[in-house]
Amino acid sequence: MATRAPGLAWFSALVAVAAVTMLVSGCSAADRPQGERGEEVFQRYCHQCHEVEGIGTRLTRRVLESYETAEFLYAYNRSFMPYDAEGSLTDREYLDVTAHLLQRFGFADADFELTFDNGKEVSLGSGGRPE
């Protein structure tokens, strides 16, 4: 009869729990709407500067219109935000927070999903919504 080392069983159980936890947390985030995920990103990384008497410009529809397209707004955010930590978010977080801003200021409906491919189709200058 083969005997297993006592530490191996605990290690195996720990790996299994970690794998399930990662799987469950990943699924729950992916299942939520993009704008909702983006709102969380905004609260975590943007809110302090842009809404709580911070150093950033207060975001308004007019401010966002100056970026002309969602693609340009995404590129700006990706290159220059958050302040002092430029480019530190994942591509998904940048897409999510940009989608949140589009939805928040009426450039896109709540079910709109921003991707790398459709960002140029969302005009901010004319206030048009994506098809």
Account of the 3D structure:
The protein is mostly helical. The protein has a domain at 33-121: Cytochrome c-like domain (Cytochrome Bc1 Complex, Chain D, domain 2). The protein is 55% helix and 0% strand. Helix 2 (34-45) packs across helix 6 and helix 5 packs across helix 6 (91-104). The protein starts with 5 loop residues before the first helix and ends in a 27-residue tail after the last helix. The model is unreliable at 10-27 (pLDDT under 50).
Beta-strand portion reads under 5%
Terminal CA distance reads 67 Å
Instruction: Determine the CATH superfamily of the domain at 33-121.
Output: Cytochrome c-like domain
The biggest beta sheet, please?
Answer: none
CATH top level assignment of the domain at 33-121: Mainly Alpha
Helix fraction, binned, reads: 40-55%
- Count every helix, treating DSSP H or I runs of 4 or more residues as helices: 6
